[in-house]
Amino acid sequence: MNKYQADYGVFITNSRFTNQAREAARAGTPITLIDGNDLIRLVIRYELFITPVTTYVLDEFYLDE
Q1: How buried is residue 46: exposed, middle or buried, by Cβ count under 10 Å (0-12/13-18/19+)?
Q2: Model confidence over 10-60: pLDDT tens digits?
Q3: Chain-centre distance for alpha carbon 35
Q4: Domain of 33, in residue numbers
Q5: Which residue windows are transmembrane per the record (predicted)?
Q6: For the chain, how many structural domains are there in total?
């Protein structure tokens, strides 16, 4: 981050960060890491690019026949 003279950084992945990446994010310039699970939570929280859908689950008595 110092190379770009940044005061803050955000790195996003749809996977997971390694332990080394997490350690590096704690050292030096403040960096926020957003992994796949965090990304999903943010998408749901702010309803980004999703359409909420109501679903119904049938009781087991119906499925036993």
Answers
A1: exposed
A2: 999 999 999 999 998 998 789 999 999 999 999 989 989 888 889 998 877
A3: 5
A4: 2-63
A5: none
A6: 1
